[in-house]
Amino acid sequence: MKSFKAKDAAEKIGISYPTIKQWIYEGKIKSIKTPGGHHRIPEEEIRRVTGEDEFENERETTTRNSEPISVRNRLVGEVLEVRYDGLFAEVKINVGGQVINSIITRSGCEELGLKKGMKAAALFKATEVMISRV
User: What distance lies between CA 17 and its chain's CA centroid?
Assistant: First the structure.
């Protein structure tokens, strides 16, 4: 069973090192402690959290037109709920047991065809979350 140092696992998932440490301490991601007290994250846990069927060392983030985009932080999960209110849509995605909530435009949500149960990715920067159909 392949496992990764917390820092390397965080990079593969697309989150910060402090975030993965917090997830470990809160039990949101499973880790194995080495005899020296260091945490190792099993490859299966990285797959579970990212929603990837096949493990990829280098993840390429693309738009629907298969063009690369600049957002590195990408978490894949399942759409739990889509609620429309006027010009906006509230989209909730379950990513490894964590719910990501995003408000996007109604037209953008309809264009993506987001529906409960489908696979989607939350693409985010420091102050915003974007949704991508996968």
Answer: 15
**Residue 90 and residue 45 share a domain:** no
Would you say residue 110 has pLDDT above 70? yes
15 CB-near residues (< 8 Å, 6+ apart): 23, 73, 75
> Do residues 96 and 129 share a domain?
yes
Q: What is the pTM of this model?
A: 0.49
Q: In terms of domains, do 78 and 111 share one?
A: yes
CB atoms under 10 Å from CB of 32, counted, come to 12
Tens-digit pLDDT profile for residues 62-97:
545 555 555 567 788 899 999 999 999 999 999 888
Angle at 25 between CA 21 and CA 30, to 5 degrees: 85
CATH number at residue 22: 1.10.1660.10
CB of 89 closer than 8 Å to CB of 69: no
* pLDDT 10s digits, 42-52: 998 888 887 76
Does residue 119 sit in helix, strand or coil?
strand
Residue type, 11: E
